[in-house]
Fold this sequence. Notes:
Blueprint: E1 11-15, H1 19-31, E2 35-39, H2 42-51, E3 56-60, E4 62-63, E5 66-67, H3 69-78, E6 83-88, H4 93-101, E7 106-109, H5 114-122, H6 138-152, H7 157-163, H8 168-176
Parallel strand pairs: 1-2, 1-3, 3-6, 6-7
Antiparallel strand pairs: 4-5
Helix pairs in contact: 2-3, 6-7, 7-8
Amino acid sequence: MENPDLGPDPSLLLVDDDEAFVRRLAKAMEKRGFSVETAQSVAEGQTIAMARPPAYAVVDLRLEDGNGLDVVETLRARRPESRIVVLTGYGAIATAVAAVKIGATDYMAKPADATDVTNALLATQDELPPPPENPMSADRVRWEHIQRVYELCDRNVSETARRLNMHRRTLQRILAKRSPR
């Protein structure tokens, strides 16, 4: 499907170590007219950015082998006009500022859907992207954060509870429930 908003070069680099997420996003972005290439590490992302710098990029902030901002810097050096969105499961103001300072076009918290990513990639400088159609509920955001910390602690309930400053039994009850909408 051709998308006239993409311009003459629809190349898109997706850098994320969450294999299922990057596969889903790649498929959705291809349907929107992008020519997608994926990477699952900083090293792989930098290699692609050096060899074939894309017009667009979506880069996860925290990757197993380092910081996604290194990929952003490499891409900025090779193709200064590229539009880059940084994704992260940790929405912190300090990292958002750092990402924008080194050249990211936008900064989004995970999980982001393909429509939000496309809007961020194609937004002009003076135009703010529209608010999300169906933002996550506060309960869902809390649940996503707990799940992310739980995974980072290698599914260790005691360690997760300690890091979240939460009683272990309370955490076990939350983990046993289904995810909120």
